[in-house]
């Protein structure tokens, strides 16, 4: 999953990026509203963490522009604790949730997990496909109840496919949603990770749809 962080405070920006990367997300960042608006308008994100008090273009204006332009990614706004009016303005502008500063990083991560799940149509923190289970809270994968050890990249790929279970996901979409702007998009990394996942999972759930991409679905006997 790929997240955009738009926050002008350098320390908080860094803390958010570090926490999100540690949680397995690919992260892009902007330090002012104009840059944030541009990235959100031109890159595909699974969610955005957006501060309201930004230089050059305030967060409410950024969000309103995105929604007018048809950008539907979930947006979590950061507000000052004593400014209830900011919360109302953010929700009215199209925000999906908010966190008041100062906040606990775990709360931000939990709210983002929920936003990403709901955007993909999943209400539960656990996503199942046959005997394969993904626990989004713990970042844990099991098959038949047995834990499967994955690298961060393998987990990220599996999580994206499971969030979009039953739909064919192209290699281009995977690259756009799993890696930040600096990733080499001409590499065969996706194919390598798919091969590794198949070996580690040892269940036939990742289907190659020739010429289109990959789809995750339960084996016929579990469907």
From TrEMBL:
Q: Which residues bind DNA?
A: 124-218
Task: Tell me where in this chain the Response regulatory domain is found.
Answer: 2-116
Mention one GO biological process in which this protein takes part, according to its record: regulation of DNA-templated transcription
Residues bearing 4-aspartylphosphate are 51
Pfam families assigned: Response_reg (PF00072), Trans_reg_C (PF00486)
Question: Does Repressor count among this protein's keywords?
Answer: no
Please give the SUPFAM superfamilies that the UniProt record associates with this protein. CheY-like
A GO molecular-function descriptor: phosphorelay response regulator activity
Q: Which SMART domains match?
A: REC (SM00448), Trans_reg_C (SM00862)
Q: What keywords were assigned to this record?
A: DNA-binding, Phosphoprotein, Transcription, Transcription regulation, Two-component regulatory system
- Sorted alphabetically, which InterPro entries does this protein's record hold? CheY-like_superfamily (IPR011006), OmpR/PhoB-type_DNA-bd (IPR001867), Sig_transdc_resp-reg_receiver (IPR001789), WalR-like (IPR039420), WH-like_DNA-bd_sf (IPR036388)
* Domain OmpR/PhoB-type span(s) in chain numbering: 124-218
Q: Which PANTHER family match?
A: REGULATOR OF RPOS, RESPONSE REGULATOR PROTEIN CARR
This chain belongs to which protein, by name?
Answer: DNA-binding response regulator
